[in-house]
Records
---
Amino acid sequence: MAHNLNFSSRRRLGTSLSEINVTPLVDVMLVLLIIFMVTAPMMQSGIGIELPQAETESMPAEEGLTVTVDAEKYIHIENSVINRFLLGQRLTDYFMGKEKKIVFLRADKNLPYGYVMTILDIIKKTGVETVGLVIIPVEDEGK
């Protein structure tokens, strides 16, 4: 009889270990889903700058590197912030071996004109052929 008791307790132990409780897993997955749903729009917002407005529009080029300068004079290339003194070297490295060298400059409208010209000068010194200034087109109020 002692043998039967030992056998049934062993069988009960084996069954409880083979059954996985998925409730905590589902709870964790739902919390992660909510976190990603809340943070995803924040990640796509980009760098907050106020672009200047102009009445003329031009057709955008199909390729090029975007350099963004925000109101605090931080320079952004792709997803990284770089120093003004390293901008030339970073652009030289980026365009090494490329045929077309096109840069789109997005500068905050509250930046001093002299600072924007300094950034343009650095970009042109690296051999960039075309620099486009990104603006917001003025909406026609008569339409």
---
Amino acid sequence: MKIRFRINKKIKIYTFLFICLFVFFFQSNSLTLNALPMEKLENKAVIEELRLKVPTEGKAAWLNAEKEIWEPWLSSQDGFLGRQLFWDKEKEEALILVNWKNKKLWKSIPMSEVNVVQQKFEDNVKTALNVGENPFKLIYEGELDKQR
């Protein structure tokens, strides 16, 4: 009787362990597992996303300043892969997508350096539009991880 009880107890334990292992292996998604480690994300391509308010009357000045100020500076940065500029006529908004080799290279650029370039951009725009302050307000900034 004691032997039968021990065998039943061991069967219950092994059954429980088997169920736990089954759930662990078959409920996990390999894409999720690959996405978890941060060191893998550091080496993946990333896209910087910026949205600006760009009124119709300032569109040409915005495009010109982007070409004269940001484009040459970005091209000199390690990890920069390119960028795309979009403009929504109805919303009067610009979307800037900057492609980076990886997040580590992008984030290694000192903010003080970015601020100097931004000030040059704003000075260019203010002169072109004959205004006292930058008319292109930042609406949103974020990042997109490139998927497979």
